[in-house]
Design a protein that fits this description.
The complex is a heterodimer of chains A (about 80) and B (about 160). The termini of chain A are far apart. Chain A has a single domain, classed as Ubiquitin-like (UB roll), CATH 3.10.20.30. Helix content of chain A is about 20%, strand content about 25%. With about 80 residues, chain A is α+β, with helices and mostly antiparallel strands. Chain A has three helices and five strands. In chain A, strands 2-1-5-3-4 form a five-stranded mixed β-sheet, with no helix packed on it. The longest helix of chain A has 11 residues, at about 30-40. Chain B is built from four helices and eight strands. Chain B has helices at about 15-25, 65-80, 115-130, 150-155, and strands at about 5-10, 35-45, 60-65, 85-95, 95, 100-110, 135-140, 145. A four-stranded mixed β-sheet of chain B has the order 1-4-6-2, sandwiched between helices. The longest helix of chain B is centred in the middle third of the chain and has 18 residues, at about 65-80. Classes of the chains: A alpha+beta (about 80), B alpha+beta (about 160). Chains A and B meet through loops of A and strand 3, helix 3 and strand 7 of B.
Chain lengths: ~80, ~160
């Protein structure tokens, strides 16, 4: 069992009800890509946001690629396309 | 990498625009043959089409405390790799802002105006697509996240 904190930023914070504040998996190995696919099953309305080339995921305050393998206790942040400036 | 003359500020306090120019001149005093200073200031606009009233009362800026700073460093590093710049300054508000508030200040110094203008525009274009900030517009009845604009993506990828 893998689990950790989940932080949602920007418009993705609207999906906190479906996704909660923790991520978890019964798989022994879990990539960011697989984790996000699981989130999409619970919140399909997110699909347009997470399919954007500007969507990013940070693990322990570092942006990581979709192939990144998560460790137990990692803090995952979902970062939708930014809108600052 | 930042140079000693560079300065980044992400703050909930009002931006000190006169101070921006002064600190940039001060930071550039040891730069030989300084010929140009460009300062861009972005303001909060009151009108927003996503709200049914068309007018916002608050613009809320959310940031990622750790990643916002490092993503600004990345953008400045990119600018420095393209142009020979004296000092680079990026100050950005976060939290709740009101119409006409200064939201962002970008300033650069260089020997000649062309590279200062280009670098300032580059920094703003990249701030819009690469720096970890998210806007939400609010009034008494509604709260909408600002949508990512294709025009911002095009401006950013044009460099």
């Amino acid at each position: 069992m893998l689990e950790g904190d989940l932080i949602l930023f920007g418009c993705l914070s609207d999906f906190e009800l479906q996704l909660g504040k923790r991520w978890s998996s019964v798989e022994a190995t879990l990539t960011i890509e697989t984790l996000v696919l699981g989130f999409l099953e619970r919140a399909p309305e997110m699909s347009e946001i997470v399919s954007s080339p500007f969507f990013k995921v940070a693990v322990n305050n570092r942006v990581e690629p979709q192939s990144f393998v998560l460790n137990d206790g990692d803090t995952v942040a979902l970062l939708p396309p930014v809108t600052g400036g | 990498m930042l140079e000693n003359a560079d300065h980044i500020l992400v703050t909930q306090q009002e931006l000190d625009i006169a101070g921006v120019y002064g600190s940039l001149r001060g930071a550039s005093s040891n730069i030989e043959d300084l010929g140009a200073v460009v300062v861009f200031v972005g303001l909060v606009r009151e009108f927003d089409k996503s709200l049914s009233s068309g007018r916002l009362q608050i613009l809320r800026l959310q940031h990622h405390p750790e990643l916002t700073q490092s993503s600004i460093v990345d953008v400045i590093t990119q600018a420095r790799s393209r142009w020979d710049l004296g000092a680079v300054l990026v100050h950005h508000r976060v939290g709740d802002l009101r119409p006409t508030d200064e939201i962002v200040a970008v300033a650069v110094t260089s020997k000649h105006r062309a590279e200062a203008f280009d670098a300032a525009r580059f920094l703003m274009d990249k701030l819009k697509t690469e720096v970890m900030l998210w806007k939400q517009v609010l009034n008494a009845d509604e709260a909408n996240w600002v949508a990512f604009k294709d025009s911002d993506a095009k401006a950013s990828s044009s460099w």
